[in-house]
Please model this.
Amino acid sequence: KQWYQRRVREAVVSTQSTGDAALLLIAGNETCPQPQTSEHMAAIDVMDLKHIIILQNKIDLIKEQQAIEQHRDIVDFVKGTMAENAPIIPISAQLKYNIEVISEYIVKKIPIPLRDFTSDPRLIVIRSFDVNKPGSEVDSLKGGVAGGSLLKGVLKVGQEIEVRPGITTKDADGNLHCVPIRSRVLTMFAEHNDLQYAVPGGLIGVGTKIDPTLCIGDRLVGHVIGSEGSLPPIYTLIEIQYHLMRRLLGVRTEGRSKGAKVDNLSRNEVLLVNIGSLSAGGRVSAIRDPKNQHGDKRAKVILTSAVCTDVGEKIAISRKINKHWRLIGWGTIKGGQKMTI
Model:
């Protein structure tokens, strides 16, 4: 269960670059909020999502009065958050009650954001895999497939692409070296539909000529795909402006008592940093605390994995507490040490 919750949390914070809206799922047969629900709500605040729908699930397992009481608990829970005015829809996913209402809300209440079709394409990879079956003949082998969401631009079949950071190695001194992967788009598909070109919005699969061993088992997750020469720099050290939560979330507390206070970052502390779809370890090498309340907190973080990102990109920060990574804050990349390629 802890592994599952960690994977869900990583998925939530990694979608901050690809999501336009959020569905917050709350089980009707449990008290609200659950520890992970508080953490997911904090992640939504990190993502700065304006459009949220709250789903009160499993209403077929509880009585009407219980559903009404939990509805009040949900309203109290989201007060003062991004979801304060979000609709709360009672549903049963198992029996498909009110599923059509969710569809109606998505279509009528969530606006389609403006898309950038003129910039160079940039796709953030959230899945990658090898589609070849065991025992396939050499002549029938296919290249690796990357799945993700196109943030901007138009990607076309036959287009030359670059994947960053690419193949990462370490030298004898422990320094990271990256070689971007260059390839070509052979196929594209969304669900079961073959595409000749893709535009921002939704998830797509991109078939390439990349060695499938480089894509197997989500090995390309955290990478960025785009036109050759158009992608952002690769960083091994980032300088961030950060904000920490007041209280620790995702940990069970007695009754309605508040979570423990979140301590400030400390030098040489090891953190988990989510940048786009990448989850990377990082060690705090320097901290600059503001001398007054209007100053901003900044820190330098040495990453265990190279990351292709832009200045201004949002990140999520987690700390290991009781052997589990817990979300403690968020930040913005202000600069860093670029890798020469």
The chain has a mean pLDDT of 87.
